[in-house]
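pipeline/complex-builder :: batch 7 item 3
reading input block
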Amino acid sequence: MQVGGVTTSNVYDITGRILVDGRDIGASVQTVSVDREIPSGLPTGAGFTAATGDVTATWGDIVDDRVHHPWGTDPVWPPRPQARVEVILSDGTGTEWTQLKGVVVDPSGTDTSRTISFGVRDNYRALDTLVTLPALSDIMPSLVDTNTHRYIYLHTTWITDRLLRAAGRYATPAPSAYCFSSVTFQGSTWPERGDCLTSVKQEPDASGQAYPNWRKTSYGMAVHNVTATYAPFSWSGLDLTFNRPMEITQEIVDLDGGSTFLRVRVGSGDLAIGHAAGTVYARYYPSSGSPVDLVSATKGNATRVAVRYSRSGSTLTAQLRFRNADGTLSTISTGTATIKSGDLSGVVTQIWANGTDAQGAFQAGYPTIEWGPLSSTPSAVINASMSGRNSLTGLPTQVNGNVLDLLNDLADAEFAQWWIDELDVLQWWDRGLLASRGTVGTLTGADHVKELSWSHSAESARRRVHVKYRDPMVTMRWRTNLTLWQNSGDTLEAGDTSEVFVNVPSDEIWLGVDLDPIRYSANTPNYYVINRGIKSVYGGIAVNDTGGERVTNSIIPSVRRVTDDTFVFEHTVTNLQSGEQAALELPGEYETDTALWQRNRGERLPILRGKRRIVFMDDVATSSIRGDSAAPDFTHDPGWWIQSATYAGQTADYAAASLTQPRPTIDGLDVMPALALQVGDRVRAVMPDRTELDITGVVTSNRLRVDLAAGTMTQSIGLMPTTVISLARTWNDFGAARAGETWSDFGADRAGDTWTDFGNTPLG
Amino acid sequence: MTTYIGTPGALMKVACPSRLSSGGGRAVLFEDTQSRRKAFLGRSVLREWSVDIGAVSPRDMAVFEHLADFSMPPFVYYPDDAVLHNILAPAYAALAVGTHTGLDASLVEVEPGLFVKAVAASGNNFSFPYRNGLLDQVPIPQGVPVTVSAWMRGGTVSGDTQISVIWRGAAGEYIATESTRFTGTSTLTRRHVTLTPPPGAASMTFQMWAQQTAGIAISLTSSLMPYAPGRGATRTVVHGLSRELIIAQSRLTLEDASFTVTEVG
């Protein structure tokens, strides 16, 4: 619901205007139509739908002897295709509401009329772009051989956020130019920029898991109780030296009484933001000695904080600034400290986020626009469900996947609802959340509702629901000794080059793949690992005409990663002795290489090893809710988007709740203008006449037809009822509702109720 | 019977009777909810006059033919009743919201049975008339006496009320200001001043100095006339010119001519 809520009026004065490229050009709007719809969040429902509309308008002098056309010199009229457009309507009660913010489509006109007509559409086309996602797992192997893993976790919210960001939709600020570290913490600690070095729960808690915890925020999710370190993202054009102002920007999230820290290590010494209950600190950790708080400020209703650090000689200055809930920036608080000799002089080496409380998305960098990330306005909002939430064990790599398709697949798999709203903010709602929102407005039969039409189809009733999901089988190692693939052997002659493509099977994910193999040759460097079956191995031996073996340096191997599911081994054979061939294998005879253990003799090369393999098995979960035994079953096939039996079962029951008992639907509720209404709102319609119903439901569609010349408009909304209460209160109704019961039954049913409760729900 | 038609700076006096064929005003449509009736206000429909000149000699048709077929509208059109009583456009005479810089007040009874819209000064005065946030002008014929009248109360110029007429050229450029002071009164009193436009003056704007001002009327007369709401139109198109020859003789040629004046904008 936009500001102002549902208006009630007896006399409507409908006016409208359009902004082209953000400017009101004073066009006289004649007709406007807008249609928008959100996915129902139910099985068999439609997916993402773009909002569309049509506008006719004239522009220019009141009397003109020529018409506007696309070959004219006027830059704004007629609007060019893809021009940014905003359609605003008012009902005469003093407020106006944006109905659609998007782009112009297909303008057209004739030379016999001054009227130009054009379509309008929301900005969904930007989602039609490509993205490559890395292969990931909720537990990522460590970058080095050590007895710990990187516990990053993989809520699907993180994938949603990652896909949206790839398409230019940001729930938290986009990484600025010269940003060297960006982590959204939207359900995983995997970074957007930089490399994850470690990630694990900071303090053990009752859950007994090594993953950090997660918290719901106004924009999505935040990590909780984590200690994670990151290496900065670097490239030749990004100087990591602290020789210009550095900004650290972080979302402010609710704390439970603990505190969190975000430190950027520059050579020796850390620049940091600390969050505690009610207060944010800009802090300097010298290489030795106590930390120094340069400045602190009270959070209030702020949603984001940024600290801008700069140095002049040995003076360190911190400027701390908030972004308030209304989008304004606070005044800057400034503080200084003296830099300990030798501190903060090198390059940024590490970013460390830790603390026992919740920590929001952050980025650190040397932005060229002062307070740029701080002032950015979100273009997406993720409403995450924290109970019964979907998370993955493994994310198969997505190479050049289509963002729109992937988002649709994910939403369909989880029955999530998503759309681009009236104000061009992408809304993502996990299933069931819209239905449990608070109601934001009331439509009444007297003042708003003109007509209610309903339908009730039981044709689609199903007996029960099966969810086909992918059950992950995980093999995991501390060291790189998990053999993922081994060649079947190959024989080459001098001058030959062999290229072998290794494709990860479609139902597997390989992680921690060792692409720095040990080369078996005349100068094999590391028998320790070869003998113990650690690390990848490539190379081979020379074999002569009589089968005699010889170690050789003439086989030049290399390996490279094409994508996370394709690797290429290349072997080139240079000069061999007369009659020799090169065999890609380890020697079979003891005399050839006495350092090689017996167990490895004759093994074919190359061998690709890694640390973690996930193999997906097909599995099915069936709903516990059953319907009519004569009805057919419904199968939901989300593929690898669901990987746990628990979540698959919950999904089956969620789908079965509506599929086994098809409920009557409200196809259209024709109402008087309620221009503040937005799809996704939960509203109440109280209709004491005719239907005698009090219906609360989620607005799933909104259809506007406005004739501004005549001053009329019609609005029809779709409503998915969440509760329906009968307002019929005759004793006959009571008798019908309680047929066959005794007063004892009634007393038992209503135990503890007051007469007021009875009055509110007499038939309940 | 006098009518003025033309462009600002070139208003021509012609004699022809006109009939208002469409009075303008607002269309209203109704929709029913489950138990109530609600109204939708349409856009204001603009006025239209059909002008039937009757028997006229060809020489008198020159101006209309030129306006209808060869000139670039919009034209100013002051029909007979406007000339005699009030050449202001209806919205200006009604002192509608947005047409002045003052503070809106309600209707006041200035004479028994006569209710007119009032405006309170913002500070000591208000300026008038405004359109779409910009100062508009009231076009006038050159050299014709103009009588400006209004009910005013509460002096703001050393206790006096004052009507300041700002004479402007055809494009709205400033020419001169002519102020007339009246003794301030505590009740609304009708004040008027008759002025002759200085050379070059083609339009006027106003500044009213009083705590409250109501019922402004501008007539193209040399004396005060009874009040009437705004009857003038400053943005019109002349079209549909038709002529029927009645008689053509060497000493007398007459034709029956009619055309339509439609308000735009």
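note: Residues 86 and 219 of chain B are 5 Å apart (CA to CA).
queue -> next item
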